[in-house]
Amino acid sequence: MKTQATKAATKSATRPATRYPRRLAAILILIFAAPLAIGLARAAATDDSANSAEDAAVKQVVAGFSDGWNAHDAHAMCASLADDVEWVNWRGEPLGTRQAVEDEHARLFAGLYKNTHRTDTVKSIRYLRPDLAVVDDYWAMTGARKRDGSDWPYRAGYADFVMAKRNGRWIVIVSHTADFNAKAPGAM
Predict the structure, then answer these.
(1) How far apart are CA 43 and CA 3, in angstroms?
(2) How many domains does the chain have?
(3) Which of 14, 90, 136, 158 would be 123's cystine partner, CB 3.0–4.6 Å?
(4) What is the pTM for the complete model shown?
């Protein structure tokens, strides 16, 4: 008569693949998962480098806006605005074309903003599609005057830009600005 030990030894010898099912499954997972993980890592690295090039181009649009502002050149400041830009200034006043934004800022640069200096810092860029991005820009300004002619030494706020890539170039299609130091219209 066979003993319990002999039966167990015979059983495991006849079915070696089922002896270590967890190990076999782990080995198979590693064999198939490792190449997949390596491929995904490479794809992510490629996407990051593509985004860094796009990020740089988007940030250059903001820098060009700021450079135009600091030169008090409304035309240069508006160079990367779409002709049909939806622009809402810090007072909530909408302007519906690039030309209207340019005209408004030319007037401001000749008067209340003629001694201003602005710095812009892009805080985030979110791509809704490869050719559409939302940009959060923190801005600070010195040297402005209020409508009554008094000094407004420091202002700061946020501008939210929606940018589209058209013909290989990023342009602003929507801009909404908030001023952290804004006061009620009657107080200006």
Answers:
(1) 58
(2) 1
(3) 136
(4) 0.71
